[in-house]
């Protein structure tokens, strides 16, 4: 039991150390505000997004992520947004609250460069009492803390393609430290995202949309998402995503009422050893756009 409880705690801290501003959405193209603040207002209308991700279905107390975003242009060159992401796994819960600001720089008639700033922070709670481990000083006090942070991003948008470069969390905050015989610590390292996508016209009704998103963080393996989808009449989209050495995903989106309302679903199958214990990951997204 002594080894088991420390293994459980190490897993919790490991998740806390990697959760902040980590998109981990299969349909990341619909959650760009999590990745870069420069996306705010780029579509020229008020947008709201709500996403739910249930990771490792079948595993009790597995990771659950909720994401809400609202963003809009406020004049010809300025966009603003608000992003809330709530992560919960086992006895850990973390809520990220960030305000986004973007400024548009005209490059050509059809190409704009948006520069963005993100400011806010993360509320971290770990309820160690739920573990039910008595007479151990490491597990006698719950954890509740707030970590402020800032981020930057650039979003190049043209008629047929986009390129994104960002670091949504620049500060390396200490997440947890414990003095004593068994010190445990974790911190946020800066994550850098680079991605892009293109839209090919296959016919009057069909478009092909490949995209990629890479993530680099110190001390962790390089992460790469490769995505491809087919779009029919600007309303129905069917696609697949491959995350390097991690998962394979299929997803579907549909637009209603002239694409004012859009709904999407993704099913992710992990290619790691954990697939023995889980039924996969489910993701649902809802988007509302008001002109």
- Helical residue percent? under 10%
Q: Enumerate how many helices there are, as a single number.
A: 2
- SS content category: mainly beta
> What order do the helices and strands follow?
HHEEEEEEEEEEEEEEEEE
Major sheet strand order:
1-2-3-4-5-6-7-10-12-13-14-15-16-17
The gross shape turns out to be globular
Q: Oligomerization state of this entry?
A: single chain
Q: Tell me the distance between the termini.
A: 58 Å
Rounded radius of gyration (Å): 20 Å
* Biggest beta sheet attributes: 14 strands, antiparallel, barrel
* Fourth-level CATH superfamily: Outer membrane protein transport protein (OMPP1/FadL/TodX)
Q: pLDDT average, as an integer?
A: 86
Number of strands: 17
Q: Please, how many domains? A: 1
Low-confidence spans: pLDDT under 50, at least 5 residues? 16-21, 179-183
Taken as a percent bin, the fraction of beta residues is: over 45%
The CATH architecture would be Beta Barrel
In CATH's first tier, which class applies? Mainly Beta
């Amino acid at each position: 039991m002594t080894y088991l409880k420390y293994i459980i705690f190490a897993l919790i801290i490991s998740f806390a150390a990697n959760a902040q501003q980590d998109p981990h959405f299969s349909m990341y193209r619909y959650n760009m505000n999590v990745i870069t603040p420069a996306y705010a207002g780029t579509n020229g209308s008020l947008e709201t997004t709500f996403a739910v991700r249930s990771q490792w279905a079948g595993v009790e107390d597995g990771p659950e992520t909720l994401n809400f975003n609202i963003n809009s242009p406020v004049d010809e060159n300025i966009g603003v947004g608000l992003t809330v992401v709530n992560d919960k796994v086992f006895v850990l819960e973390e809520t990220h609250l960030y305000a986004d600001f973007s400024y548009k720089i005209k490059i050509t008639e059809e190409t704009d460069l948006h520069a963005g700033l993100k400011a806010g922070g993360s509320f971290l709670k770990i309820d160690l009492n739920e573990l039910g481990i008595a007479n151990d000083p490491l597990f006698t006090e719950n954890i509740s803390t707030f970590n402020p942070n800032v981020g930057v991003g650039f979003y190049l948008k043209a008629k047929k393609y986009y390129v994104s470069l960002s670091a949504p969390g620049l500060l390396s905050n200490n997440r947890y430290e414990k003095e004593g015989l068994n010190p445990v610590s974790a911190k946020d390292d800066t994550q850098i995202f680079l991605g892009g996508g293109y839209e090919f016209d296959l016919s009057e009704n069909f478009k092909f949309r490949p995209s990629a998103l890479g993530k680099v963080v110190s001390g962790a393996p390089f992460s790469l998402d490769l995505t491809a989808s087919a779009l029919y009449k600007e309303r129905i989209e069917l696609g697949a995503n491959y995350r390097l050495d991690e998962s394979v995903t299929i997803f579907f989106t549909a637009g209603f009422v002239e694409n004012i309302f859009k709904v999407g679903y993704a099913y992710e199958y992990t290619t790691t050893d954990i697939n023995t214990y889980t039924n996969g990951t489910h993701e649902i997204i809802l988007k509302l756009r008001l002109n």
